[in-house]
């Protein structure tokens, strides 16, 4: 088994990475698994810049292969917001419910065709002594008027997947892992891992 550290404390993300990488022979560890509790300051202006900052910081400190992701929601009507601020959209404390409520409030009264959005994910692969590589993935959809579904996390309950007629939170884990922004980016990352 090859060990890979996923530079996150988010259990939802770690679960997705495990489901996708374990069958490929990777022993997936989170920051919590390795006892890393410090916060990494994400000072980048893009998802890609933040992913690189996280991957390189952890790779430097552990000497191990690290995958970091930075991902979030971009809503066209809101000029791309919440974007890199997706996790802290409603304030400094990460709060999925507060973020979701703020988003729905900002889109109140906006017609469906103007509620287009996409989940975006940048992944950075950092291996000590090698140049960091990055890939990006996305999934298109719309923001619903109210939450639906209990799977997933974050904005999943209000993100209606284009061509699916279901929110991300109404999909099973296996369905989500086939079409999500992270799955799209991981497919591209797979080529790099090979």
TrEMBL record:
Could you tell me one molecular function GO term of this UniProt entry? Answer: ribonucleoside triphosphate phosphatase activity
Q: Which reaction does it catalyse?
A: dITP + H2O = dIMP + diphosphate + H(+); XTP + H2O = XMP + diphosphate + H(+); ITP + H2O = IMP + diphosphate + H(+)
Family assignment from sequence similarity:
Belongs to the HAM1 NTPase family.
Function, as annotated, reads: Pyrophosphatase that catalyzes the hydrolysis of nucleoside triphosphates to their monophosphate derivatives, with a high preference for the non-canonical purine nucleotides XTP (xanthosine triphosphate), dITP (deoxyinosine triphosphate) and ITP. Seems to function as a house-cleaning enzyme that removes non-canonical purine nucleotides from the nucleotide pool, thus preventing their incorporation into DNA/RNA and avoiding chromosomal lesions.
**Which residues are the active-site ones?**
70
- Co-factor: note: Binds 1 Mg(2+) ion per subunit.
Q: Which top EC class applies here?
A: hydrolase
Q: What is this protein called?
A: dITP/XTP pyrophosphatase
State which Enzyme Commission number(s) the record gives: 3.6.1.66
The record's subunit annotation is: Homodimer.
As cofactor, the record names: Mg(2+)
* Tree of life domain: Bacteria
| One GO CC term, this protein | cytosol
User: In the UniProt record, does the keyword Hydrolase occur?
Assistant: yes
Task: Give GO BP annotations, semicolon-separated.
Answer: nucleotide metabolic process; purine nucleoside triphosphate catabolic process
- UniProt KW keywords: Hydrolase, Magnesium, Metal-binding, Nucleotide metabolism, Nucleotide-binding
Q: Which Pfam families match?
A: Ham1p_like (PF01725)
Gene source species: Bacillus sonorensis L12
> Per the record's keyword annotation, is Nucleotide-binding included, yes or no?
yes
Chain positions recorded as Mg(2+) binding sites: 41, 70
The residues that the entry says bind substrate are 8-13, 71, 153-156, 176, 181-182
């Amino acid at each position: 088994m090859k060990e890979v550290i996923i530079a996150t404390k988010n259990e939802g993300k770690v679960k997705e990475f495990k489901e996708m990488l374990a069958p490929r022979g990777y022993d997936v560890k989170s920051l919590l698994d390795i006892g890393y509790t410090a916060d990494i300051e994400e000072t980048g202006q893009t998802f890609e810049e933040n992913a690189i900052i996280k991957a390189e910081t952890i790779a430097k400190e552990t000497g191990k292969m690290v995958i970091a992701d930075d991902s979030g929601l971009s809503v066209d009507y809101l000029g791309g917001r919440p974007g890199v601020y997706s996790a802290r959209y409603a304030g400094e404390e990460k709060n999925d419910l507060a973020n979701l409520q703020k988003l729905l409030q900002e889109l109140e009264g906006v017609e469906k065709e103007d509620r287009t959005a996409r989940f975006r994910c940048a992944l950075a692969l950092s291996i000590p002594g090698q140049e960091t590589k990055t890939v990006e993935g996305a999934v298109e959809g719309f923001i619903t008027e109210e939450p639906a579904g209990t799977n997933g996390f974050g904005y999943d309950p209000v993100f209606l997947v284009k061509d699916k007629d279901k929110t991300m939170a109404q999909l099973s884990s296996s369905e989500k892992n086939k079409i999500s922004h992270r799955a799209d980016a991981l497919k591209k990352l797979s080529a790099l891992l090979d």
